[in-house]
Every structure is written in structure tokens, then in C-alpha cells.
Amino acid sequence: MAQKTLTDELIGRQILLLAILLIIIGISQYLALRFVLFHSEARSLHQEITVLAPIIHHAMVKHGALNFHSLANLLVTRLESPGVDVIITNRFGLLIASSSPFSTQVVPPLDVTHTYFLWHHHIVVDAPLGSLAHPSGYVWLLAATNSLDRILVRDIELFAFLGFLSLAITGWLGSLSVKHSLVPLKQIRDSTVRIAQGEIGHTTMLKNPPKELGELGDAINVMSLAIKDLLDQEKMLSDQMRRFVADASHELRTPLTALNGFLTLMSEDHLTEEEIQRGFQAMRQEAQRMARLVNQLLTLSRLDTAHETALSMHPISLEEWLNGCMPLIERLTRDHALQIETSPVTVDADKDRLTEMLLNLVENASRYTPQGSTIMIRIKREHPYGLVEVIDDGPGINENDLPHIFDRFFRGDPSRTSKSGGSGLGLSIVQALAHAMNGQVEVFNRTPPEHGAVFVIKLPLSSQESPDHD
Prior knowledge:
A hairpin with a 4-residue loop joins strand 1 and strand 2. The protein has three domains: about 170 residues, PAS domain (Beta-Lactamase, 2-Layer Sandwich); about 110 residues, Helix Hairpins; about 160 residues, Heat Shock Protein 90 (2-Layer Sandwich). It is built from nine helices and twelve strands. The chain is rod-shaped.
């Protein structure tokens, strides 16, 4: 059995509702028309009997019931009209005169409390002759309902014909209307099919849709774009993970290869004592480099998964903290000129991690700038952050490399080896630590004619920071 379409369902419901409405209207019209026709006929009979009853009563009183019998038949013959019968009885209910074929068998009941009543497919109006308390007899006027029934039947037939015609026209026009109204829904269906087939990010612009379909279309467009963003992010993370694993494997393999090579040479026992000592020294350096790389990877892993447990946040006076870091900084910048600019600023941070961030930036500046050049460390306030800036006057950073400078294992110069360029994780750790402390880190080149790079660590000001400093 074929499944019904939404168009068929909506059109069918329209026709069904219209059919129910037409039936209700038809029944109401039939009852109203029947009431009007019957009351109109009864009113006409009532007007006639109002005039006729006193005349009959006067004749019965004047001539007596017995002499009135022949007069009554003559009167009935004179009063009888097409479709209207007359029945006259005395006060005891005995038939005196009649033009109705029913009166030979039974006389209509007497009902003076209602305007009219129905009896044997006739509308009957009755009246006493004389006073109601002492009548001389009774008279009935009977009008057959056949003509009225024919009018009602013709009305029903006409209404049924017009009703079926209305249903047919409604079905045709409703089909056009529903199909036009469902065009946006068809567009939405086609859009979802395309999305399901792999066109992630596909959107559909609907033209003047109904409010509900417009909202549905917008929701599907937002969903499609959101899925595309998620897939793009997933692809980017997947690519980063593959590159990260490859780079980490390469970085770890290099010292391991060196260690294995030295051990192989030493096992052959062809080396002099001096060569063995140099080998041990090189192995120690490679082991330290490998340990440093593993520690950096562990630091990034902890910051990626649960940075809350990796930090201990406290209010820190940047000026006092920098003074405590000076011995470490001077050792890293012994081949450079060092300048310090400070101001009283208090931030919320992890002191040890902040020191690690600063040393990474200072080491990076000293590694990539010429000997004798100047490295400046500046502390200042830029509400709502406290800033730690590391500024050098080296060659700066290639503009194409700036967006990727904090990527893991990224090196601006691909020709650099790990010996000259580090592991490529220092700046990634700086960024991860800054984000973990609810801050951020930025990098940009100095504005010409000055040259060099500027790294800025931004950390939220502490709640203990004096408002007078703002």
C-alpha cells in the first residue's frame, strides 16, 4: 500500500472539514426552511379559521345542529380549496361535515394550545365554535404537506449538488494552494537530503516562507553550518594530532638515534678515552634534551585535559616577581643587553608557571636575535589586564608565520634543527598556560622604523589591585 503524501493528507483534511461544515449548514438550512414553510402555511390556515369559525358558529346557533347538517356540507363545499380540507363536528365530536378522506375513519385530535400540529402528513389548525367553555362544535382546517415536502426535497437536491461542486472546486484549488505552500518544505527536504549525502555546510534560502517553515529552514541552516564547523575543527584537530605525533616521534627519535649510535660505537671498543668522554657528554646532552621534550609534552597534556589541577593561582606583584626572576633571566641574556621597565601591578596567576612562561619568551628572544642586541622586559597595566612584555630588536617574525607562531612544533624557518631552533613547544606552552590562567598571549612585529618582535602576556588584574592605579 502506497504511503500517503503530506499534500494528499492536507487536501483530504480540508475536504473532510468542508464536507462536515456543509452537512451542518445543510441540516440547519433544511430545518430552518421547513420551520418557515410550515409556520407560513399554518399562519395562513389560522387566518382562515379565525374568519371561518364565527360564521359556522352563527349558522349552527341560528339553524340548530340538525338543520345545520345540510348547510354545513354546502359550507364545506364552498370553503374547500385545493390542498385544504375542512372538518366540522358538534360539541360531542360527532362529524357534521367534512371534505377530508380521513374524517370518515377518525377525526383529528383537538389541540387548541398550539398554533398548529402535524397529523397524517397534514398541517392541522383547529378552533372551537363559540366560546371555549361552551362550544357549539369544532372546526379543523387541514393542509397537505406534499407540496412543502417537494420544496424541501428540491432544496436538498440543489444543496447537495452545490455541496459536491464546492468540494470538487475546493479539492482542486486546495491542491494548488497546498502545493504552493509546501514549496519551502520541499526545499528544506532537498536541503536535508543533500546534507545527508555529504554536502555539509549546505544552506537553503527560502523565499517568503510561512513563519514555522522559515524557522525550520533557519534551524537546519544553523545545524548544517554548525556541523561543518565541528567537522572542520575535528579535521583541524586531527591534522594537528597527526602532525603532533609525527613531530613528537621525530623529536624523540633524534636523541634516541644519537644515543643508540654512541652506544654502538662504544660497544665496539675502538674509541679512545677522550672520544668516550665526548660520547658520554653528547649522550648526556641528548638525554637531557629528550627529558626536556617529554616534560614539555606532559605539561601540554595536563593543560589540555585538566589545567585546573595543574595550576595554583594566587595574587602576584609582578614587580616583586620579576626581581626574583632576574638571576635566571640574566643567565639567558648574558650575550644581550637587558632593559627592565616596571610599574606596580598585581595579577592572579601561578607564580612558577608564570616564571616558566617568561623564561620561554626570553630564551626565544635570545635565540633568534643577534648577540649584543637589546631585549626589554616591560611590566604595565592595561585594564583589565596586567601586561608582561618581552621586546627584542632582532629581525622580527615573518608575517606569514605570525598566525602559526604558537602552533605546536612550529618553526618559522624549516631549515632549523632542534639544536638551533628548540623543540617548537615553548611558545605553545606559553599560550596554553596563559589561557589556563584566564589570560592570553599575543605577538606582533614592532612598527617601522623600529624592528624586532613583541610578545605580550596578558593576565587578569587581581581583586586586590588598588583602584587608584587604574
